Known about the structure:
This protein is an alpha/beta fold. Helix content is 36%, strand content 17%. The strands form 3 sheets. A 5-stranded parallel β-sheet has the order 2-1-3-4-5, with helices on both faces. Strands 6-7-8-9 form a 4-stranded antiparallel β-sheet, with no helix packed on it. It has a 3-stranded antiparallel β-sheet with strand order 10-12-11.
Amino acid sequence: xxxxxxxxxxxxxxxxxxxxxxxxxxxxxxxxxxxxxxxxxxxxxxxxxxxxxxxxxxxxxxxxxxxxxxxxxxxxxxxxxxxxxxxxxxxxxxxxxxxxxxxxxxxxxxxxxxxxxxxxxxxxxxxxxxxxxxxxxxxxxxxxxxxxxxxxxxxxxxxxxxxxxxxxxxxxxxxxxxxxxxxxxxxxxxxxxxxxxxxxxxxxxxxxxxxxxxxxxxxxxxxxxxxxxxxxxxxxxxxxxxxxxxxx
Length: 248
């Protein structure tokens, strides 16, 4: 689904995507996009989203659909150039940010990559050992089907949640800095000043920790970053998700 108020750009992107074989819904504002999702939320596999929309901004739209539990990838397409704009986009739940004017081939490449990462399009697997199912603590994660359960109850994660979790599992036991995570998971410069990583850590702890205020699996390492421990570690229990340690 394309959410873009400039008609010539909206129709141009739609035409080129349809020429590539995609089924495309194109709307001019956020309320229309919300109506599409309300009518059939499973009909949309990816959203290309402008930020400067009439009435309701792209930021507000993205934040709302994430709060409602929609997990499809969101690619922001915007003329805004400041780092703060990209940071805010990631903070409200966007997966990628492409600046206007853009190269059409790059847009197609990003769409293909996001769809390949999405649960509904191409199943994911852990590269190391090709592990499809991973269990730790109370959780069971199927990276092939994107099915996640905690204490046997299903849990719905976004594609970015799953990518971050997978990266932690692939590097279990290692201390990962925020800069490393921004680069590896979000493909953003590690020097960006943002709480995006911290906000996602809070979410992972909320999902998987029995007591998020005293995490045993997703641990803070003071002055360094974060470390994932599958078996659980009580030595870092004093750290809280709302007050992550600063990196040195």
